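Journal club side-thread
Mid-discussion, someone asked how the predicted structure for our own chain would compare to the paper's figures. Pasting it here so we can look after the session.
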Amino acid sequence: MIEGVPDRWMVLRVPRPQDESRRDLMVEVLLECGARGVEERDDLLVIYLPPPSEDPQAFVRRVTRELERVSGSHEIAVELDWQPHEAWEERWRTHFKPRRITERITVAPSWERPEVPPGTLLLTLDPGIAFGTSDHPTTRGCIRMLDGRVRPGDRVADVGAGSGILAITAALLGAADVLAIELDPWACQAARENLLLNGVEERVRVRAAPITSKGLPGEPPFDGIVANIESSILTPLLPGLRSALEDGGWLILSGILRTESEASVVAAAAADLGLDGVDEEGDWWTGAFVTPD
């Protein structure tokens, strides 16, 4: 059980745009505003957030302005409600189901134990209130990119680790030393519990710390880094991420819309990172980059 969680959650209901690119931009804004979950219904986006430090109505007005800015609409009606923590947790349990991501990786919630083919990997997850369940295309894109790139004995960093799903994936694929970096203390706690669920706590370290343009001070170079965070945050971090890699190392970047991919490739090239592979799902884009040997 995650300590210090609120006893109730702010629930915002926002009309869901039919245009997928506008919808994805709105979801990105909501996550940046602190959303712990975004539920997509036929005509609504339902957002769950911890109670804000500011006046709730002022917060809703601020979120509304941001949504109108990215959607190009000036008539977005945002409804405010509150929900007990227990009801929020139960709702997410109904939506998080086992999912096979690659030929050898299946992700399942801790309350289900699906049968998987012999010789394949089952990643068990209880996201708690952290981002990362395999229900988002960017998470799946990163898992697909990790599968085939992680080699036994690798040192890997997961930047913006959330629930720890990508760090655990790297460990299950054979990485010997994984550093999961996450600023949110609730997510760090959820990640540590997920390490125990998957038996990788001896090989994965969770560190509550920000990532900056200076890279990962105090750490030897990594064989690979995965970062699934918003593109606006990723771009200024690229020089630091490059400096944290071994020569010949790889970097997986996600949280990037297809419309942003060209700019991301250009920014990565400026940091001496060459494009090595692409994964696309819906409006979302994941890129794998390598450093020169």
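Post-session note: The chain has two domains: 8-92, 97-290.
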